């Protein structure tokens, strides 16, 4: 699987947004986000946030390691590794399963920092290149369709574990995670998955 994705030249990409959930503004440093336009709509399943997603930790669809840069703290460095484990679609939702590991040899083992301090870690975007459609996680407040005042609360209430706004990463600790998103239309065989600055192109979709 290729590990990079560039959508800067895409025209007319439609971001599927939730009628009861918002999205934060796209990050200009994320190449996948800069091409996203606001449009479209989808309804959130009533049980989209129910339960937890079982993860097979032996599955690795792709792995990307990037240097850490922080716009809010000079204490954070090292690298962030993102592992894509699965892209699973049921009748009700799409689940992106992943893992995160922060490693900084200059900091004490198990030192913790909020994901907020890791720049560009709060962005999850799944793209169907064939239909030029993008999907963001469900959220519980605000609206993808709204303006900035509606988008901000969605960024803080996305159905993502760990919470990429207020959760914490511990040095050298592997954190398993998952995100709930709308079901992609047309049953695409592959999708491009972007988690922070890590991009995974042509990830195989499993249908349940």
**Tally of contiguous helical segments:** 1
**Could you tell me the mean pLDDT?**
77
The share of residues in helices is under 10%
- Which structural class do the helices and strands define? mainly beta
Q: Show unreliable segments.
A: 2-12, 17-51
* Biggest sheet descriptor: 6 strands, mixed
Write down how many β-strands occur, each being a DSSP E stretch of 2 or more residues.
14
Radius of gyration: 16 Å
Alpha carbon gap, first and last residue:
22 Å
Shape: globular
Listing every helix as H and every strand as E from the N terminus to the C terminus, the arrangement reads: EEEEEEEEHEEEEEE
Strand content: 25-35%
The tally of domains stands at 1
Spatial order of the strands forming the largest sheet: 2-1-8-7-12-13
Detailed description of the structure:
- The chain is mainly beta and 208 residues long.
- It has one domain (14-46, 59-207).
- 4% of the residues lie in helices and 34% in strands.
- It has one helix spanning 148-155, and strands spanning 14-16, 37-38, 62-67, 79-89, 94-103, 112-114, 124-128, 133-135, 160-161, 168-170, 174-181, 190-195, 198-204, 206-207.
- A six-stranded mixed beta sheet has the order 2-1-8-7-12-13, with no helix packed on it. Strands 3, 4, 5, 9, 11 and 14 form a six-stranded mixed beta sheet that branches. It has a two-stranded antiparallel ribbon with strand order 6-10.
- It is globular and about 45 Å long.
SSE arrangement:
Layout: E1 14-16, E2 37-38, E3 62-67, E4 79-89, E5 94-103, E6 112-114, E7 124-128, E8 133-135, H1 148-155, E9 160-161, E10 168-170, E11 174-181, E12 190-195, E13 198-204, E14 206-207
Parallel strand pairs: 1-2, 1-8, 4-14
Antiparallel strand pairs: 3-4, 4-5, 5-11, 6-10, 7-8, 7-12, 9-11, 12-13
């Amino acid at each position: 699987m290729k590990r990079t994705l560039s959508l800067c030249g895409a025209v007319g990409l439609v971001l599927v947004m939730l009628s009861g959930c918002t999205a934060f503004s796209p990050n200009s440093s994320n190449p996948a986000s800069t091409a996203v336009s606001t449009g479209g709509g989808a309804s959130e399943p009533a049980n989209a946030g129910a339960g937890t997603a079982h993860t097979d930790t032996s599955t690795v669809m792709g792995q990307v390691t990037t240097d850490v840069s922080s716009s809010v703290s000079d204490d954070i460095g090292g690298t962030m590794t993102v592992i894509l484990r699965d892209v699973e679609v049921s009748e009700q939702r799409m689940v992106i399963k992943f893992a995160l590991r922060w490693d900084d040899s200059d900091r004490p083992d198990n030192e913790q920092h909020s994901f907020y301090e890791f720049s560009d870690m709060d962005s999850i975007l799944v793209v169907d290149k064939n239909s030029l459609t993008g999907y963001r996680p469900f959220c519980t407040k605000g609206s993808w369709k709204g303006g900035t005042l509606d988008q901000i609360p969605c960024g803080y209430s996305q159905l993502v574990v760990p919470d990429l706004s207020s959760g914490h990463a511990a040095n050298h600790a592997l954190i398993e995670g998952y995100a709930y998103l709308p079901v992609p239309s047309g049953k695409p065989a592959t999708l491009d998955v972007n988690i922070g600055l890590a991009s995974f192109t042509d990830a195989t979709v499993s249908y349940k």
